[in-house]
Structure prediction request, 83 residues.
Amino acid sequence: MRKPFAVLTMLMLAAALGGCGSKKALSRPSGDPVPPKPAAAETAPDSDALVTPDSQARPDRSDEVLKRSQRRGEDRFDLPPTD
Prediction:
């Protein structure tokens, strides 16, 4: 009873992983219309511009090291818990 289930599971896993290895350039299927130009843009973006994330989607990291300790200021909302 367990052996057919294990074999089926392994086959499904192999099929799922087999589709992950395909790497080829993205291209628009023939006959598809070009996406319309955005209203505020001067020109229509090309395919590279459409798949490249902007700085808002991928912000830069700030790895600034803390140089010195500073006491926190008074916080009027730091209240003790109530019952």
